[in-house]
Please model this.
Amino acid sequence: MNTTDKPLVLVVDDEPAQRALLSYNLKAAGFRVSTANDGEEAMLAIAEDTPDVILLDWMLPRLSGLEACRQIKASAGGRQSAVIMVSARSEEADRVRGLETGADDYIVKPYSVAELIARVKANLRRVRPAAAGAVLEAGDIRLDTESYRVTRAGEALHLGPTEFRLLAALMERQGKVWTREALLDRVWGRDIYIDTRTVDVHVGRLRKALCTHGGADPIRTVRGAGYAMD
Amino acid sequence: MNTTDKPLVLVVDDEPAQRALLSYNLKAAGFRVSTANDGEEAMLAIAEDTPDVILLDWMLPRLSGLEACRQIKASAGGRQSAVIMVSARSEEADRVRGLETGADDYIVKPYSVAELIARVKANLRRVRPAAAGAVLEAGDIRLDTESYRVTRAGEALHLGPTEFRLLAALMERQGKVWTREALLDRVWGRDIYIDTRTVDVHVGRLRKALCTHGGADPIRTVRGAGYAMD
DNA sequence: GGCGCCTGTCACCTTACTGTCACATCCCGG
DNA sequence: CCGGGATGTGACAGTAAGGTGACAGGCGCC
Model:
């Protein structure tokens, strides 16, 4: 899963015009976009940087959309992405086959751009709750992923980028314990190799920041396991 | 799938030096390691004790890495392992072919040891999530493996890591009598050398913790056999 | 170039946890 | 009622895990 702030959408379509159109609209909606011509290129793109959402055209050369979907869902990275099949066929049978293959959603041409964006966001929320521009809340702490603002009991807090993403991760799954390794993956990124103790340091900094205006420490340390937010 | 605490990594490489190097580093990182010379030995090793992660060299005698990967993924045990292809070839095409064959990840020589370990851990997390069932219940005791929380009659209890795992083991199979040896295996790990009396001590501590807010002792001592939870 | 902010690492400290021992207690066969 | 093996448990020292201040490098911004 990519860990930058903007969600990444992969567009898989063999028509350049269609790719350009989708790219333009998705970028305008604040997403990063990568493109692929066919199923094989798609697998490459996924290995390169795992997208959050994949828009997959039904009709593809070489590797059909259906088969591409199966492979994506069978791969390590692709399993973490939401796959939306895009098709001109409106038949129910195809829809069923698409979903059976592991597609998460289905959208039929012709569609409005608004509908497309809405679908992407909906799936994004499911796959990566914090990235969809949601406001996360936990107790008296509010974190707005769109405006990058964090408040506690109404008081604004200043966090660095890393602390921000760390807090977002913790709040995304309240109560759940994150191991240091999982946090490194989620906050720092999959291909970054960093000492796990660094997580401790950042948790410490985050704690200090969260308590600047008083209030109890909201982060729970689980000895031998990791950290959790309550 | 093996069930001890230490994950098992199978290294498949025809160069003894390479095997030794990988083994050393993986063991240093806390993994158990088995090795295989080629694809056929790999299949044997998998039948012996299913590894959690398989490091598969691209170039192998007799059975190419690609073909070996296909066979592994087609076998009963191998399907449960994450396969990481290790290759000197950096060509994109190979990467695709590797992933198409069912490899879960791909790493290209030369790679740093840190990267290798990180990859192994990342795949391990995916293959073997901490625990299957999130919440265990027995009587008025609740144990949540995701949030690492234990409550009795609603009251939160504080347990150390070992006590937590011990309780989880007992609750996982209510009524079953665990021998001290089995508990040592399950809670402490397979090849850990510890006095069996230590189990008694921890059971005692666990009992005390479970009864802090009153309530009957839920752990039954079976004289001459071990312990069980009712 | 100077400055300040953010980051990752390290070293040191504190604390909780752990494994073992010694001794008390219990259970059961004889 | 007794002896011996099995279990309960308080004490204790060693250790591993986590908290934290310090520091140097990187980076963007004046």
Q: What stands out?
A: The radius of gyration of chain A is 20 Å. The CA atoms of residues 135 and 144 of chain A lie 4 Å apart.
